[in-house]
Design goal:
Elements lengths: L4 H12 L6 H26 L4 H12 L5 E2 L1 H8 L3 H13 L3 E5 L7 E5 L1 H21 L5 H19 L10
Antiparallel strand pairs: 1-3, 2-3
Helix pairs in contact: 2-6, 3-6, 4-5
C-alpha cells in the first residue's frame, strides 16, 4: 500500500501518543488536504475563463436557477451566504464586465432583479463544461461506483454534521 503525507503524520502521532485512535484524524486530514488541492485546481480552471471563484459562484447560481436566469439580489446573497454589501460589490464588477444586468422587478418597483446577459450565459456555460471535466479528472482514480459510494458517504456525514452546526452550503 502506498503512503501519503497523512500517513506520515499519523505515524508520528502513533509513536508519540499510541493510545489515540487516529482513524478520524486520518479522514479529516485527507479531507482538508483534498480540499486544498481541489480548490487550487478548480480556481485554475475558473481563471482560464477570466473568473474569480466569487464571480463563478454568482454566474453559476444564476445559471442553475433556470430561464430566465434571473434572481433578486437577496436570493443571490442568501444562496451564496454573503452579506448584501459583498454581493453588491460582486454584482458591480460582473455588470461592468457585461456578464449580468440589473433591472427593476415587475412585481415590486422598489426592488431589482439580477440576470445573466447573453455573454454571461455563454461564459458560464463554457466555464461549467470545463469545471465539470476538471472535477471528473480530479476523481479519475475512482471508478464510477466508487465515486457514487464516496458521494453517498459524504452526504451521510454532511447531513449528520449539519444537524448541530451552521454549515456553508456549496455554491456550484
Amino acid at each position: 500500500m502506498q503512503t501519503d503525507h497523512v500517513d506520515r503524520i499519523l505515524s508520528q502521532w502513533q509513536h508519540e501518543r499510541p493510545e489515540l485512535d487516529s482513524l478520524a484524524m486520518s479522514i479529516f486530514g485527507r479531507l482538508w488536504r483534498l480540499n486544498a488541492i481541489a480548490s487550487k485546481a478548480v480556481e485554475r480552471v475558473h481563471l482560464e475563463f477570466g473568473l474569480t471563484q466569487a464571480e463563478f459562484d454568482v454566474l453559476a447560481t444564476l445559471r442553475r436557477s433556470g430561464e430566465p436566469y434571473t434572481l433578486s439580489p437577496t436570493a443571490l446573497y442568501t444562496s451564496l451566504m454573503l452579506s448584501s454589501g459583498a454581493m453588491t460589490n460582486r454584482l458591480d464588477k460582473l455588470e461592468a464586465r457585461g456578464l449580468i444586468f440589473r433591472e427593476p422587478s415587475p412585481e415590486d418597483r422598489r426592488s431589482m432583479l439580477v440576470a445573466l446577459t447573453k455573454t454571461g450565459l455563454a461564459l458560464i456555460n463554457e466555464t461549467m463544461t470545463a469545471h465539470v471535466a476538471n472535477e471528473q479528472k480530479l476523481l479519475r482514480s475512482l471508478d464510477r461506483a466508487q465515486q457514487q459510494q464516496l458521494a453517498d458517504l459524504l452526504r451521510t456525514l454532511l447531513l449528520d454534521m449539519s444537524k448541530d452546526q451552521a454549515v456553508d452550503e456549496p455554491t456550484e
